[in-house]
Amino acid sequence: MAVVDKDVAEKFLDSNPDFAKEYYDAKFRPKVISDLFKDNRTSQVNTSSFHELSMFEESEIIFDMVRDLQNNLQMEKAIFKFMKHLSFLIRADKMSLFMYRMRNGTAELATRLFNVHKDANLEECLVHPDNEIVFPLDIGILGHVATTKKTVNIPDVLQSIHYSDFVDEIQEYKTKCVLATPIMNGKDMVAVMMAVNKIGAPHFTTQDEETLKKYLNFANLILRVFHLSYLHNCEARRGQVLLWSASKVFEEMTDIERQFHKALYTIRDFLNCERYSVGLLDMTKTKEFFELWPVLLGEKPPYDGPKTPDGRVSDYGLPTYVAKEGLVTSGIRWVTFLCSVQKGPVDSSGWVIKNVLSLPIVNKKEEIVAVASFYNRKDGKPFDEQDETIMESLTQFLGWSVLNADTYDKWNKLENRKDIFQDMVLYHIKCRTDETQNVLNTRDRYGKEPHQCKEEELEAILVNNDSLFEFHFCDFEHSHLDLVKLGIKMYYELGVVDKFHVPRETLTRFCYSLSKGYRQITYHNWSHGFNVGQTMFTLLMTGDLKRYYTDLDAMAMVTAGLCHDIDHRGTNNLYQMKSGNPLAKLHGSSILERHHLETGKTLLRDPALNIYQNLSRSQHEHVIHLMDIAIIATDLALYFKKRTMFQKIVDQSKTYESWDEWTKYMRQETTRKEIVMAMMMTACDLSAIAKPWEIQSKVALSVAAEFWEQGDLERTVLEQQPIPMMDRTKAADLPKMQCGFIDFVCAFVYKEFSRFHEEITPMLERLLNNRKEWNALKEEHEAKLAALEAAKVTEEEVANATIAAKQGRTPTHADRQTGSQVHTQTGRQADRQSGTHADRQTGSQVHTQTGSQVHTQTGRQPHLGAWGTNHTKWKKTTNSIHLWGQAKSKRKTLRTDWSISETMNSSEA
CB-based contacts of 776: which residues, under 8 Å, 6+ apart? Predict the structure, then answer.
């Protein structure tokens, strides 16, 4: 193959540029580019002498720097090589890189690469953080460039007003000319690059400025790549810090010290520091007064240093300063300037503090609760803004997490206070050992303790009362302790004492403590609680409803009846909500019912009162479940929801021909048993309305008295007008309200129970009889009002006739009308005056005196005697409240009727 002459080939390629380009791209470009990025490729640029660079040599420099950027993971190394090439291009004697940063809110420039030239080594030019030179922005040419963000070319530094020679004095170097330019990231300052002293010329030229700006884009690229990589790593660290600290913070909630230690120990690898410390601001320690005595006596000078907000000494260096000022501090020089920091080794290992970052830990209320300090960044550099961001996020999160520890601590203290108050309450309620002898006087009678007595001996001590099994049981003739004894006797009659191994002393203490747990109020007192328990006992035994329940069920149901109103306050659920009572905030619905339930459970949790202590775990859970249902069922709002379900059960019972089959079916249906039990609780709670009239009429006045007391509270405390049922000025409407209560609330439950079991019919019969009595009083009152109105009309006509006779004329229809109006007005005025006087004479406010007598001394009840005095039975009831209270000296408190109380609850619901 003939050899082609070089000149001919060049001439051909010059004449055919398209062919030359296609041939070059196909044959040589891939190989050339591959060779450029080979790691072992050496630079072909000769930097031994300065000369004008050809385009080929300049491209070699650029590709050389790109390859360094690819291989180097350190920003300083890549920038160093770039600056070496640049110093060669612009023939600068030395070049330096100053990084822009913020320290404690102040902008500054710090040396990172110093005195770079074409023959320099990285180790010589890289500035260690301990030896860096820092320029504030208001000093030197560098500060001027960073402030103006413009390139400056100063031929003679001595002629510049911004020139500062303190670096020349340190380095023993003479600066003649300077070329400096800012490196920007958008509008943000990143660094300042400076070249000093042009080689072979008095100053840098315009061409040097253009070369510097041209290559500055590449420097920007290098810094941006490494900056973005650094930000990515920082965000990754920040995410890991928050994630891991969150997992540990919520593991430990009992102690803030352990909480912080766990969180920081887990994330120690992400903090990028050698050591850290956390100082907690202790605001719990109380000041000792005896520490002030030497100061007050003049024996010791008063302390005038920094103090905590509560006045205690706080002089512990940097953490104290940060806690006092609330500032983020970093940099060893700045910190040393503010406060003393140990400059030598801090321990035997020889570890020395080189740089420190200290931040306050702030809680949700923006109060400083601690100070976190981080020492010696691992790579030797000072802490920067990203470190501050990460640590600030951590401390902010830890500050917020303090809320968990504080909340737990407050909750723990409240729990302890609750236990203390509960212990105080139990001390006054709980039956002591010596008090058991008030109920079971076994020492005087048998000379031994109750647990040593036989069953026959205990039964002889307990009250024998055949009416305990009757629906018409009356507690009026029994004392407080008699009712306790009857309560104990009910458990014996149920046969549960021996069957479930209930300790005799425990049963006695429980019943007596239960009676003491009821407040001595007008109606919802121990007498009412016992009556409900006795009615439940009677429904089970006499009403033959026990056929559906086990002995354990019966025990739970009687206990629920006795406990159902313990610690009642004499006011209803609506009043608790209106007055903002803590009970209303604690329980969302059935407020008082849930309180009674929890109070009963509290008594049963005491080992000395727990009559369920010998039950198995499943049995104990079962009786507590039944008590929950039974006591909550006394809320009449729930009663109205269950009436239809109960009616269906009664109807279904009529479809069975055999009682045994129906009983077997009911025993297997837990839900139906619970519905019947809930309705039994309602029947027991309202049982006073089904007592004989002599009992019910007195109880109704007790109910009304308690209602009027609540009405007085609403009028005085809440400043609201009470509903008519609780307004003592509407006392005359009591018979009418009782009739409505019987018709709309009580009649259903007793009619259905009478259909369900005929043995319960006596309760319905007495209910209907009481309805007749109340209706008769209502009609008599209405008739008397009508008679009074008729009498007024007659008096008006007579007065008109008298006036007409005096005038000597016959009275006309107009005279009768006019006279009627006049007389009506004067008659009403007279009525009001006489009524007011009657109020002062008679009065009728019911209140309790030492739990044994009830008096009527209220001021505003003008109509009560208007219809009651001429009716024999009502006269005995209304006018003898005071006498009845005196006659019943054994009775602790005046009884009231649950029926009216629950009418109010149902109407409000």
Answer: 871
